[in-house]
From TrEMBL:
Keyword annotations: Hydrolase, Lipid degradation, Lipid metabolism, Signal
Signal peptide: 1-21
A Pfam family the protein falls into: Abhydrolase_6
GO MF annotation terms: 1-alkyl-2-acetylglycerophosphocholine esterase activity
Protein name from the UniProt record: Putative dienelactone hydrolase
One GO-annotated biological process of the protein: lipid catabolic process
Signal recorded as keyword: yes
Organism, as annotated: Rhizobium metallidurans
Amino acid sequence: MRTRLIALVLLASFSAFPAFAAPGFRQTTIAATGARPPLSISLWYPTTSTAESINLGETPAFVGLPVIRDAEPAPGPRPLILLSHGYGGNWRNLAWLAGELAAKGYVVAAPDHPGTTTFDMRSPDTIELWQRPRDLSRVIDTLLANPGLAGSVSPDRIGAIGHSLGGWTVMELAGGRFDAGAVMNDCPRVFGPVYCRTFTALGVGRDAASMAALGADLGDARIKAIVTLDLGPGRGLTSESLAAVKVPVLVLGAGENVDPETAEKASIAATNKDSFYLAEHLPPTTTQFALVPGALHFSFMQLCKPGAAALIEEEAPGESIVCRDAPGADRQAVHRDVSDRIMVFLGSALADR
């Protein structure tokens, strides 16, 4: 989503644990480190509070979810799940999933990645793509050191989920290595014009230093499970690095594709080719792969209200694609399917160690 959509946006199971009603919710900021700017993070977590809830993220276009702001966290330690949004997105995009996870006993943290979020698309952060995985590592550091924020976190039960460019981000945490030189060498043929324009905006392949930074090992050994939601650009990760990934990975792709050439202003019109690529090259014994019926690329984002597409189109022409699902599909049903798959996967991958 681009800047013209910002105004519209701003108007507004883990079997070992019991289910919680409205989760606690808190926002905080991690201080700047070196040249990296402050990092805004949103937190959902289990709470036994019975205080009045608010409808988080409710806008004229999007459905909100009940949370109890700044509630006292329930006792831990608990597994932690990191959420990484797509290019031009923000923490609201996967808030629906965060609420589901917190209700099952997980602590959930979603940063707004500087340079690639709705709220900040400025250079030089935009062209330092390798900082995205490091953002998530900073979040882990902060939550382990400050249990008062969202409750005590179990350091050996940490997972990460990413949509679109967020899926690429979490695969980097698992040890994926990105070959910017190979990507840009034959970009139009392999990826298509929409991808290539986005790569250029992200500074991919602009010089030797950036290619080296993108190709470096950005893994974090504390990550024990990964979920990708119609990721992109997965095909830029080397097959060798994917084959060496040690942690369990659940790869969920859109059941149908948006044609990149008719995707209007879709930021990084990922296709499920990237998900197929991951499934082909990740270790088969620790990888699960499925296409989600009825899902297009943006079906993994928050629920749209009736009439939302027309409202968004009026405010930001071309951006109504974020409310598009496959013909006849129901996004709420897609979310239920995705959530069920994720809960089963994480319940096994992050079982009490």
